[in-house]
Design goal:
By secondary structure, the protein is of the alpha+beta class. The chain has helices spanning 7-16, 27-40, 60-82, 103-109, 122-125, 129-135, 187-221, 242-248, 268-283, 388-395, 444-451, and strands at 85-91, 96-101, 140-143, 155-163, 170-179, 227-231, 237-240, 289-293, 302-311, 314-322, 328-329, 345-350, 353-358, 362-368, 371-376, 379-383, 400-404, 407-410, 414-419, 425-429, 436-439. The strands form four sheets. The chain has a seven-stranded antiparallel beta sheet with strand order 13-12-16-15-14-18-17, with helices on both faces. Strands 7-6-10-9-8-11 form a six-stranded mixed beta sheet, sandwiched between helices. Strands 2-1-5-4-3 form a five-stranded antiparallel beta sheet, sandwiched between helices. It is flat.
Length: 453
Amino acid sequence: MNLDGGTVLAAWERFVQGEEQDPDVRPLVAVSWHRCREQYRVDPHLTEAPVAVAELDHTPERDVVLAELGFRAASLAHEVGSLGGVVTVTDATGRILAEWGDQATLARAGDPNLAPWFCWSECAVGTNGIGTALEAHGPVTIRGAEHWCRVLHDWVGAGIAVRDVVTREPIAVLNVCCWRSRLPASTESWLANAATMTQCPLKRRARDSGAELVAAYSRARAQPSAALAAVDTAGRVVIADDMASAVLGVPACTPAVDPTLRWNPGLPELITAARYATGQAINDPDWVGSTQIFAHLADEPTPISIRPVFSSGRLIGNLVSFGATDGAQLPQEERVVHPRARPRRLVAMRDHRMVLLRLPEVSFAESHGNDVWLSTDQGRLRATSPSLDKLEGELAGVGFLRVHRRYVVNLSRVREIERGLKGELSLVMDDRADAMVPVSRRHAPAVRHALGI
């Protein structure tokens, strides 16, 4: 059965041979194909999924989610099975844990290893309902030749990732698939509702944790101390006193218990420190650390001390004291950099069409709110990269440099350097608008070194 009218198959054949994108391919799929070819380098002629690696450590939230998804999948199994379909539940790595449904389809699914203990992440088998759901937000449907591996072109799969309501990291995936037939039109709505219902206990637990963080903050404030804030495990601010609020750029003494309302200070180093603290505290509950971050309106780094907060043996966040240096020093660069292929192109969006940009076409990237925007020879385009930090990592070593917490520039497109009255630097870019990009004092030495000034 032809699931896509042949146009997507033709586009797939051209793309796997090295050609660029086709307008007949949906943007979601086109971006996924680009990841598969340029970043993950998945063989499109792979015939079966690999065996999953060792299971990662997991939290109680994971067990709650998997139990709930198992119940929902099992309750739907008869209905899906009557349509010749299969329901699967996977963990955050794309490893299938259980499946239900039509016995004939389950037997056929065994050929590509669509079965428990095998990995279906994008980096393992390319574009598919499970792996692409892990990379996206909301329900995802992959039909026929939209799959990266040819062996899956007779399949249709729809999946949704259930995500942690605090960190937004995936916990599990619920997936429905069938062979040589279409899924019901209501499939994505059903998946979205299942994910929403599964997240309800996580939201209640997160609100309780937020209230407990506020209580821990209040107890700490009862004793004279430095400026203080409470942040969750993702580095978002739950509450901050007057002095800390000025440093973080968030409202003062305003509790944000609900995880959807917490303040994002826009300080990548604070987020990195909070996540590092989470990893350390899980192994050593008495751990306390210190580091320095560049805060808002500050020319010099601000020292901070991070003290984890536990509730019933579970880490719920950290108390951050400003101006304090208690505890072990955090490493200067704690993030593990995984080797990956450097991009030949950057991917951006114009309306509902994907634009592939050669690196020299990009003048600079700017973080604005929750989006990353590219200043290009084709105008201002929204990047598909979810954050400026991730984009910076992808472009490291190919002529781009972080010059400000909000900007990454193409060094080959810097035309002039302007010095302000107080010695601050600005870069005049070689683009149609002669855009000026500020250089923060922190990044100025690296800029001078890179430009030889």
